[in-house]
Design a protein that fits this description.
With about 350 residues, the protein is α/β, with parallel strands linked by helices. About 45% of the residues lie in helices and about 15% in strands. The two termini are about 15 Å apart.
Length: about 350
């Protein structure tokens, strides 16, 4: 299993705990990422939203790509998996900038391609927001342009959304960055199986993840591509006893009143084909992070990680709070690396 974590660009991951002791600042992010390398983490996912989806839209949120460029210069081994939304980035200009960041990082850049869901954010920034199926059509073209710029000396393309004429990208990335993507609709899965390298999922029990991996493997085989990697989001709580872990779970999921970002969560559901009936308790942690039940003693978490490995999962994208303290504990007691 590879272990990754979400960079806390929003100042935490708990929607109903206002202050988690990890400010959305460059200084916290820099120190956390350097420590994560030392503790043995393989990857960090840097989410891209211009508005703060976790703490409320008026709260600070770090920009993903300038943060990634800065991290590339001050780290040595960790893979920088940076989210990118095609409707916010022209693909030819993006390919040029991302190639430079990959050079700074020595070949450690990866993409998490996200077909946008937040209509209000796009409206505020004056950007195009496509309907569901059009979002994946745009993403498909966007990936073709980016890949073309990265692999060909000159690249021309004429599509419904983008056009290039003999475009040049030099220098190119050290190596072609890995492209991760997620989605549960038919359009999303078809696009990912054909054009991406890895499929990332929201949190679910292993019995629910197994058929998703089997389905994507079959799609990938039909498309004739190389084997894919499979990742999943999860929130982790490790304690010396199960009772202690459950007390922490109760603390982070107790909701006194609807938090500031609840309207954004409601809009996210309306813009996807995910299950609609999520409990308010689940809202406390993003990306269905509590469903994997990575909550308990080190031995219990090791057993659950093994269950995921057995069904083909090879990457866990972890959220914890407060992140630095909990990541060090998880690395020492579960990963055995810190």
């Amino acid at each position: 299993m590879r272990y990754g974590y979400w960079t806390p660009v929003f100042g935490g991951w708990l929607r109903n705990v206002p202050d988690e002791g990890m400010a959305a600042t460059w200084e916290y992010t820099r120190d956390l990422t350097r420590n994560a390398e030392r503790w043995g983490y393989d990857l960090t996912l840097i989410a891209e939203l211009n508005l703060n989806d976790i703490k409320g839209i008026d709260q600070p949120a770090l920009d993903a790509w300038s943060t990634a460029a800065a991290l590339a210069a001050v780290t040595e081994t960790i893979e920088l998996m940076v989210a990118v939304r095609p409707n916010f980035h022209h693909p030819a200009l993006f390919a040029k900038a991302a190639a430079n960041i990959d050079r700074i990082a020595g070949g450690r850049l990866a993409l998490n391609v996200v077909s946008s869901w937040w209509a209000d954010e796009a409206r505020q920034y004056g950007l195009q927001f496509d309907q569901h199926d059009d979002r994946y059509a745009r993403t498909s073209e966007w990936l073709r342009v980016v890949d073309g710029l990265w692999t060909e000396e000159r690249f021309s393309f004429a599509g419904d959304f983008y056009r290039t004429e003999e475009a040049i990208c030099a220098p190119k990335p050290v190596k072609r960055p890995t492209v991760y993507a997620g989605g549960e609709s038919e359009k999303a899965k078809a696009m990912i199986a054909a054009q991406c390298d890895a499929y990332v999922m929201h949190g679910d029990p292993a019995v629910a993840i197994a058929p998703k991996i089997a389905d994507m493997r079959a799609r990938r085989d039909a498309a004739g591509g190389a084997p894919m990697h499979y990742g999943m989001a999860a929130y982790a709580i490790v304690r010396d006893s199960e009772a202690e872990a459950r007390r922490e779970l109760e603390r982070i999921t107790t909701v006194a009143e609807l938090p500031a970002g609840y309207a954004n969560f409601d809009q996210w559901l309306s813009g996807t084909q995910l299950e609609r009936e999520l409990k308010l308790q689940e809202y406390a942690v993003s990306n269905r992070g509590l469903r994997p039940n990575l909550i308990g003693t080190p031995e219990q978490l090791k057993e659950r990680v093994a269950e995921y490995e057995a069904v083909g999962l090879d990457l866990l994208l972890l959220q914890m709070s407060p992140q630095a303290e909990e990541m060090e504990r998880f690395a020492a007691q579960v990963m055995g690396t810190a």
